[in-house]
Amino acid sequence: MTPLRRGRTGAWAAALLICAFLPQGVCAQVYHWVDDQGTIHYSTGLESVPERYRPEARALPVPAIRAEPEAVASASAITTIQFTPGAPILVSAKINGAGPVTLILDTGADRTMVAPAALGRLGVAVPNTSEATVRGVTGSSRAPVVWVSSLEVGYAAAGPLPIVAHDADLRQADGLLGRDFLALFTITIDANAGVVTVKPP
Questions:
Q1: 8 A C-beta contact, residue 158 and residue 149
Q2: Half-sphere exposure of 8 (CA within 13 A, CB side)
Q3: Where in the chain is the domain with CATH 2.40.70.10?
Q4: pLDDT category, 141, cuts 50, 70, 90?
Q5: How many C-alpha atoms does 144 have within 13 Å on its Cβ side?
Q6: Residues in Cβ contact with 186 at an 8 Å cutoff, skipping those fewer than 6 apart
Q7: What is the pLDDT of residue 75?
């Protein structure tokens, strides 16, 4: 099996934990599994994992989120993302139809996080209402939570979705694309070929 490797920035991002900040409801369960060719897969629901791989499939923890408004996911086609093996996976995203912003795809991040400055460029206001606790390797801090109507990566779109407005000082990106978005789709990461595919839910 070939594990998914991360660059220095990706390793820091994987250590990031954004605590649950809204008490009700849960996301769909996401499972991590590896096929015979060493390709890493992230699938929503155990039934979406081929039966032969289910005994080794690992359920990833998903924090609680508010049940309403419920995020609706859609994908008109399969999205393919190229990346350099061993380096962070950079994706181009749109928020509320504006952008793009560059995010690091990080299955270790519970929540999608975008720097306030990047949100400002897109015309997204950051209110002083709900907050999340952001914990990283250097400590913890509080950050505002912004509800956006849509988050798009290629053909994959979801919304409404809560985004944590926090600047993690990522030199290559404006933030992280977390499992709150990824769990809504079927994600395949081929670390050998340097390709990520995002399929309809």
A1: no
A2: 4
A3: 69-199
A4: low
A5: 15
A6: 41, 42, 43, 44, 48, 198, 199, 200, 201
A7: 76
Residue 22's alpha-carbon distances to 67, 82, 132, 141, in angstroms, are 9, 34, 9, 17
Query: Could you say which DSSP state residue 13 is in?
Result: H
Q: Which residues contact 183 (CB under 8 A, 6 or more apart)?
A: 27, 28, 30, 44, 62
Determine the residue type at 165: A
CA distance 201 to 114: 24
**Radius of gyration for the chain, computed over Cα atoms and rounded to the nearest angstrom:** 16
CATH topology of domain 69-199: Cathepsin D, subunit A; domain 1 (2.40.70)
Per-residue pLDDT at 173 exceeds 90: yes
Per-residue exposure over 31-44, b if at least 16 CB sit within 10 Å of its own CB, e if not: bbbbeeeebbbbbb
Can you give the pTM of this predicted structure?
A: 0.71
* Listed residue (154, 161, 183, 163) closest to 68, CA to CA: 161
pLDDT at residue 172 above 60?
A: yes
